[in-house]
Amino acid sequence: MQKRILITGAAGFLGSHLCDRFITGGYKVVGMDNLITGSLANIEHLFKLENFEFFNHDVTTYVNVPGKLDYILHFASPASPIDYLKIPIQTLKVGSLGTHNLLGVAKAKKARILIASTSEVYGDPLVHPQDESYFGNVNTIGPRGVYDEAKRFQESITMAYQRFHGLETRIVRIFNTYGPRMRLNDGRVIPAFIGQALRGEDLTIFGDGLQTRSFCYVDDQVEGIYRLLLSDYNLPVNIGNPDEITIKDFAEEIIRLSGTQQKIVYRELPEDDPLQRQPDISLANEILNWKPAISRDEGMKITFDFFKSLSNEELNKHEHKDFSKHIIK
Ligand code: UDP
């Protein structure tokens, strides 16, 4: 019998790649998104397929999906620091109320649900690299608090549904992931640097650039999530690429990759910007037999070519959308 899966955040960067993966795997995919940060362009190639349906719906309100569901992937959430600042209340609501609604759907349909958590649950980590046993160092009231705390609540309520209702749940802690379909203007470092290089602007490093990140190519991330969903492991699992680099070295890599002579300029470091981040992926390796297969060199070439293929108009659309009408007062 063909399996049916609901994917929230389907029009987003990760959500749309997950739709592709499950369509390719022979599933019926129900996509859901309210398009605040997602874009239909990411899934328009799926609309002609019989195995794909799409609901334009905000999961913070009651979620109704007719028919059976075997699996749910809850990936709806703003996921960049600029978005948390612009839509902080929606960010809190989708992680908390949205998760509660989806857990309710999973319970009613007897579906297994996988929740997208994040390395942000570790905050500005005092343990390095971060493994799943680390409880984190999060500022609840800082600008990132709306995302970090929503995701921490999300993990708690998911475990409560698992323990209290016997629901089958999975939790993935996603570390920085990149690839085609990232939003050029989401403020994240990879689209920011590539956009700047392609437009001939200076690359903006926040702080001294000695902070580190570890970037995972999207196909590797999606494969890890796919395996976790189908595994029988029900506690949080880190998925990311441990290959760590300073933001300054990364800026220089992008300048080399683009073959341009861009200058680097330094800007103020945003509040609570984590100093270092690297996933410990021993657990994923052990239980899912997973590790990333795509090097940063390889992944960045594909990503750079994706952005290079955008029209000039798209490339220059780097002013941010006006989100004010979406903010719940
Ligand atoms: N960053 C930067 N210049 C930019 C955008 C981001 O130096 O134009 C830095 C940012 O301060 C952070 C790192 O790059 O230290 C990664 O930022 P991103 O927003 O991509 O992800 P996160 O901080 O959530 O890991």
Overall description:
The structure is a single chain. This protein is α/β, with parallel strands linked by helices. It has one domain (4-328): Rossmann fold. It has ten helices and 13 strands. The protein has helices at 13-24, 81-86, 88-109, 145-165, 189-199, 218-230, 247-258, 282-288, 296-308, 312-316, and strands at 4-8, 28-33, 52-56, 71-74, 112-118, 169-174, 177-178, 203-206, 212-214, 216-217, 237-239, 244-246, 264-267. The chain has a seven-stranded parallel beta sheet with strand order 3-2-1-4-5-6-11, with helices on both faces. The protein has a two-stranded parallel sheet with strand order 7-10. Helix 3 (88-109) packs parallel to helix 4 and helix 5 (189-199) packs parallel to helix 7. The N and C termini lie far apart (45 Å). Uridine-5'-diphosphate binds next to helix 5 and strand 8.
CATH class: Alpha Beta
What percent of residues adopt helix (DSSP H or I)? 25-40%
- The name of the CATH architecture is 3-Layer(aba) Sandwich
How are the strands of the biggest sheet laid out side by side?
3-2-1-4-5-6-11
List keywords for this structure.
13 strands; single chain; two-stranded parallel ribbon; disordered C terminus; globular; 7-stranded parallel β-sheet; binds uridine-5'-diphosphate; alpha/beta; Rossmann fold
Summarize the structure.
This protein has helices at residues 13-24, 81-86, 88-109, 145-165, 189-199, 218-230, 247-258, 282-288, 296-308, 312-316; strands at residues 4-8, 28-33, 52-56, 71-74, 112-118, 169-174, 177-178, 203-206, 212-214, 216-217, 237-239, 244-246, 264-267. By secondary structure, it is of the alpha/beta class. The chain has a single domain (4-328), classed as NAD(P)-binding Rossmann-like Domain (Rossmann fold).
